[in-house]
Amino acid sequence: SYGGGGGGDGGGSYGRSRGGGGGGRRDFSYSRDTSRDNSNVDEAAVLEMLSKRGDAKRNRDFDAADQIREDLIHNFAVGVDDRSQTWRTGVSSSGSGQRFGGGGRGGGREGGRGGRGGRGGGRRQKDFGPNGHDYELSSDAGDNSSQLSDTDIHSMLADRLQAKMSRDFQVADSIQMDLISGGVFVHDGMKEWRADGVPYGSFSDGGRGPSRTIGSRNPTYDRSPHSVDVEGGVEDELIDGLVAERMKFKMMRDYDKADAIREGLRTKFNVLVDDRLQQWSVAGDFGEEHNAQRELADRFSNRGYIKSSSSLSLSAEDETYIQQRVDERSAAKKARDFDTADSIREGLFEEFDATVNDKMKLWSIGGVFDELGVSGRNPRGVYTRRGGGDISDEDIAQVEELLKTRYLAKKERDFDTADGIRDDLMRQFNVRLDDRSSEWRIESDEYVQAGTSGLSEKDVEYVSTRLKERFDFKQMRDYESADGIRDELGENFGIVVDDRTKEWRVEGATKEPEYSYANEETQSYDAEENDDDDGLDAALEAVLSDSDEYEEEEEVKEETELEEEVEEEEETTSMTEEELTSLKVTELKEKLRDAGLPVSGKKAELVARLMA
Fold first, then answer.
1. Three-class SS of residue 438?
2. Which of 13, 319, 397, 528 is 20 to 30 Å from 555 at the Cα level?
3. Distance between CA atoms of 219 and 346, rounded to whole angstroms?
4. 596 exposed, middle or buried (CB, 10 Å; 0-12, 13-18, 19+)?
5. Could you give the CA distance from residue 208 to residue 105 in angstroms, rounded to a whole number?
6. How many other β-carbons are positioned within 10 Å of the β-carbon of residue 77?
């Protein structure tokens, strides 16, 4: 059985001792910071990567640790603060959301090693001038008719800008609501403000007026061209005014009043409002095409959440329970009780690995939704076999069962057990896992064909033989010979080799390949015969002319090859330490291979080896 963590010597069947008995080693356990962002993320995968990063740092393999940190940003939008040993979501590689408070390894916008509050520190503060912000008064704005003085407005705009830069959007939105309540309107897209009582988007003068401008948060609603007149002699201006009042309350987040106005427009005037078109219409006529779309949208909105067709199976009892909880979450969202809705969603994920897609009103065990049109993705915990290798059906069933057990262990954050199962799979079945793509394969020299190729049986046999030879060359670290075989197969057959999946395919195999192994023997013989003829002609000419020209020609050839080798060695040895340091690790290893030197070690060791 696969046991849990435990302390002391590691506990459980597999004791890598993440949980105790460190013998004074530094603890690299991290906790999640949800103060700024609480986005849904695969926490098990994040914590596993953080654990591997901690192992790398203990081994002083900082290049690997930095690479894991970058992978967390690119793949999960997760940033790490080593000083506080916390991680959080909402971080991007461009620098957005990466401020943790300065200092630490890679804490700055540019990443890298920040040292002790050094190069990796926080973002430089920008000087916004005497007002503390970079918003300008709109050029067409009238006099200040708001309840706030210009000094108060500038102070609130400065505080709102600082809150936005700190990603404290709740405070920023609260300040904006106070500005709106006081009669001050802000347009973030144009970096302008006005306090003359005219909200952005409520006029259209053909100039700098932001009506319908992207970024305006208070757009104008017009009467639909398909609308009939309002009954009872009611003027359009009255409807426009009520719609504008509704938008004002929406801006102030007073949704109860906004909804009450919308319902009053419907019941008293038979006027429906379409927020996407930004139009209103008597009897809800917005044109034939849009009416059909609205009908479908209404049917969809009235439909409850259902299980995705790509969901993993579960018992009838569990399915009934999950559906009940999903319906309760939907009711909580309608009542704007988002805390309860989020709690239900998180509980379903932790207990059943259930993911809810609000856009499609679907839920799925394993997190896959084929209805979204994204195919080929496996549910969480389900792995696909790739490549070749001999393994019985019984062993395959055992591998798949172990993979399920490993997934459950990772889900429970029992990484010792998960790592133990991974090692056991390699030891017993020679199985290598790829967690990122959810695939497994047998580690062997056998490459299998993917798809159709159009090659003859003899050509396929030849390709398989050459790929096995290539595998042996790679095992012996003879990468030049291995690359030569790969290039030969690509040039002659159009073959692309995937070393990760141990598969090969013919690129765009829609016709017979231009090259065939069946002709290789004849081609090789002809080539050798031509080479022999050329050499014989040169020797015969030298003999008949009674000169040493042939021997001199061979000597010149050998001298040229020797000079090229010497020049290549001199090129490497003549490089300065700074020039070598600027090269990538793969380039340094290639130069070491050319020089017949070992290629293992850190980058600094590779450079020192080449300098010696």
1. coil
2. 528
3. 35
4. exposed
5. 46
6. 18
